[in-house]
């Protein structure tokens, strides 16, 4: 009888532990991008080549400026790099389609890092979906308005769709084609609230923008060589935690910071990341990651300037 009671108690403890882990996963994912300093618990088109290729020499140098697909993996650093390079447009703008496509690859990167960090990807995916849905609604609205105007002019219905497409100026960006055009459109339509939380594209972009800085810094640190003092490479766990503390932590409350700290403990070792980005050693990883980090840097800085210009870096 006593053994049975002990078994039930043991099962109860394990059950509570499992519930606690699930709770942490869900809470960390949902709060990751929502936190801010005041209230951390509030909810917070050009074509490009996706078949780029990189060739490594034995000394780690690069023969071309492109990356090859890594067989058997969901995350492809070659696609991430291609999307990042396609995002900048004009002198200081960012196309939203390759920007969001870059995030789709980064989401796969997060998922590959394990369930605790991967839980964050669900919230990020929700953010990218919000902007994609806004772009879809805008396209439908433009199509409807264009077709209504053509019908009013008595244009043959069989030629309406062709005329709507062919009349578009390829150099003219729509409301949700780029960062700058989205900001201008949402401001002019009164969709951006500087006092209350909304699901505007600008506020959503800001949350993605903050998370991008964290990942950029982590990848930068991961690409660095051994510590001068010890001559050893630091663990990805320490690097990811440090990158988080220097970026996203300032927007999160105490509970979220503690859960993030737990999540980073479970990160895999460097050899896992070598396989993930399709390299053999740290020397090759440094070459690849420098290129990716620079591409992120260009996209991030353009977005930063656009948000800062319109005082959107602290949207609630």
UniProtKB/TrEMBL annotation:
Coiled-coil region list: none
Ranges for domain Glycolipid transfer protein come to: 95-278
Pfam families to which the protein is assigned, alphabetical: GLTP
What are its GO cellular component terms? cytosol; membrane
GO molecular function list: ceramide 1-phosphate binding; ceramide 1-phosphate transfer activity
Designated name of the protein: Glycolipid transfer protein domain-containing protein
This protein's species is: Alosa alosa
């Amino acid at each position: 009888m006593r053994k049975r009671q002990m078994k039930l108690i043991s099962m109860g403890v394990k059950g509570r532990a499992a519930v606690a882990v699930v709770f942490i996963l869900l809470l960390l994912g949902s709060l990751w991008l929502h936190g801010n300093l005041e209230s951390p618990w509030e909810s917070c088109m050009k074509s490009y080549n996706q078949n780029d290729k990189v060739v490594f020499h034995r000394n780690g140098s690069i023969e071309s400026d492109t990356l090859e697909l890594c067989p058997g993996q969901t995350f492809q650093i070659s696609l991430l790099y291609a999307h990042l390079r396609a995002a900048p447009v004009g002198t200081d703008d960012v196309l939203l389609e390759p920007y969001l496509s870059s995030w789709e690859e980064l989401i796969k990167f997060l998922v590959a890092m394990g369930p605790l960090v991967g839980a964050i990807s669900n919230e990020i995916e929700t953010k990218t979906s919000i902007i994609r849905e806004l772009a879809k609604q805008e396209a439908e609205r433009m199509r409807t308005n264009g077709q209504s105007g053509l019908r009013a002019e008595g244009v043959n219905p069989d030629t309406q769709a062709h005329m709507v497409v062919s009349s578009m100026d390829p150099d003219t960006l729509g409301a949700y084609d780029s960062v700058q055009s989205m900001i201008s459109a949402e401001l002019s339509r009164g969709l951006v609230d500087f006092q209350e939380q909304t699901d505007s594209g600008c506020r959503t972009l800001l949350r993605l923008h903050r998370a991008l800085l964290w990942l950029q810094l982590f990848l930068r640190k991961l690409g660095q060589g051994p510590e001068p003092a010890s001559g050893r490479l630091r663990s990805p766990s320490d690097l990811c935690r440090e990158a988080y503390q220097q970026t996203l932590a300032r927007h999160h409350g105490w509970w979220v910071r503690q859960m993030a700290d737990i999540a980073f403990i479970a990160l895999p070792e460097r050899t896992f990341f070598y396989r993930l980005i399709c390299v053999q050693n740290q020397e090759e990883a440094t070459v690849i990651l420098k290129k990716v980090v620079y591409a992120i840097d260009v996209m991030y800085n353009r977005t930063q300037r656009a948000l800062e210009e319109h005082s959107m870096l602290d949207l609630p």
